[in-house]
């Protein structure tokens, strides 16, 4: 029934390769099916003005899609002189999702910026960015702890995200682009490793949905997050 031939509750193949760039304090390439995102984490000894002097750390994110990450070339946003609304919305989502898993007191007064660059898109780029972004963040924090700049681990739980939706009348896990573009209901579920919810973005895309269907999608999301967290842990422990 699914274009990919997957079962309703089957994730695409997930791989996370760490240490893919030379200079970033933390980096990984996450591949979820044909969606590939480069995630890098940069540590800076500064924080935004609104928390300066508070002793709190800050985690933020930037997101972008390369011109040929999609089937036709997209114009670089830099050439337009500003970011599009979708880009701004997604990078804010990534930042606040990652902060949900951080003890900002333990991090200390420093900022970590997670950059997520979509190399190839086939649905679920924001979810892959959050999942891979946490791996890059984990590797950067590990360096801070190794040098003694941070004593207590500020990452309280892994953070990962997965899409679920209703495609051809059936609840499905981890939508690729052919499903995403045709789904009657589309949702993004961001969770901690213990399955506590951080954020749910869920909307009707041509069909409404019931409470029972929402619960089915939540169950699928929990299954997907469990698999993603296992992949995250394997990547950072390798």
List keywords for this structure.
238 residues; alpha+beta; Ribosomal Protein S5, domain 2; 6 helices; 9 strands; 29% strand
CATH fold topology? Ribosomal Protein S5, domain 2
Strand content: 25-35%
Number of domains: 1
Uncertain regions spanning at least 5 consecutive residues: none
CATH class: Alpha Beta
Helix content: 25-40%
The CATH superfamily appears as GHMP Kinase, N-terminal domain
Class from helix and strand fractions: alpha+beta
Principal-axis shape: globular
The main sheet orders its strands as 1-2-3-5-4
Summed up, the helix count is 6
The end-to-end span amounts to 36 Å
Order of helices and strands: EEEEHHHEHEEHEEH
pLDDT averaged residue by residue: 96
Task: Describe the model.
This protein has a single domain, classed as Ribosomal Protein S5, domain 2, CATH 3.30.230. It contains six helices and nine strands, in the order ββββαααβαββαββα. The protein has helices spanning 77-80, 85-99, 104-107, 125-147, 177-180, 211-237, and strands at residues 14-18, 26-32, 35-44, 58-65, 111-120, 159-167, 170-173, 185-192, 197-204. The longest helix has 27 residues, at 211-237. It is globular. The chain starts with 13 loop residues before the first strand and ends with a helix. InterPro entries: ExoRNase_PH_dom1 (IPR001247), ExoRNase_PH_dom2 (IPR015847), ExoRNase_PH_dom2_sf (IPR036345), PNPase/RNase_PH_dom_sf (IPR027408), Ribosomal_Su5_D2-typ_SF (IPR020568), RNase_PH (IPR050080), RNase_PH_bac-type (IPR002381), RNase_PH_CS (IPR018336). Belongs to the RNase PH family. Phosphate binds at residues 86, 124-126. Its EC number is 2.7.7.56.
């Amino acid at each position: 029934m699914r274009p990919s031939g997957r079962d309703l509750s089957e994730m695409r193949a997930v791989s996370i390769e760490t240490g893919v760039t030379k200079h970033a304090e933390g980096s990984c390439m996450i591949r979820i099916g044909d969606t590939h995102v480069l995630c890098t984490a940069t540590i800076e000894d500064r924080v935004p003005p609104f928390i300066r002097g508070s002793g709190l750390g800050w985690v933020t994110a930037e997101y972008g899609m390369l011109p040929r990450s999609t089937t036709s070339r997209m114009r670089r946003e830099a050439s337009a002189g500003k970011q599009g609304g979708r880009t701004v919305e997604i990078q804010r989502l990534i930042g606040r999702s990652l902060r949900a898993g951080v003890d900002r007191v333990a991090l200390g007064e420093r900022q970590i910026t997670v950059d997520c660059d979509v190399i190839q898109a086939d649905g679920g780029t924001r979810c892959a960015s959050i999942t891979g972004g946490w791996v890059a963040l984990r590797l950067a924090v590990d360096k801070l702890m190794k040098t003694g700049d941070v004593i207590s681990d500020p990452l309280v739980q892994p953070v990962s995200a997965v899409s679920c939706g209703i495609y051809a009348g059936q609840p499905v896990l981890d939508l690729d682009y052919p499903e995403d573009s045709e789904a009657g209901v589309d949702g993004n579920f961001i969770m901690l490793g213990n399955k506590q919810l951080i954020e749910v973005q869920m909307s009707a895309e041509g069909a409404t949905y019931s409470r029972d269907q929402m619960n089915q999608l939540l169950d699928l999301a929990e299954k997907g997050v469990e698999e993603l967290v296992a992949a995250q842990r394997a990547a950072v422990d390798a």
